[in-house]
Amino acid sequence: MEQTPVRTRAFARFLPPPAVCGFLLLLGVVFTGAYAAGTAVGPVAPGIVGPASPGSGQGGATPGHHSGGH
Predict the structure, then answer these.
(1) Given a cut of 60, is residue 47 above it in pLDDT?
(2) What are the residue boundaries of the structural domains of the chain, listed by start?
(3) Which of 13, 41, 58, 70 sits CB 3.0–4.6 Å from 52 for a disulfide?
């Protein structure tokens, strides 16, 4: 029987299980793919402007839209 060196056993003790490593690798691949697809497609709606900041002289509601209520 071969025994693993003490140094190798100590190092292996701190490694996460293979399933965790596989999950993190898959997560990175999915994130990279989604980022690449989003960059290739571009902005979803480039003409949309966020709400006006207070004191900018514009109302908070977008023209043609009602604010609040149902």
Answers:
(1) yes
(2) 6-36
(3) 58
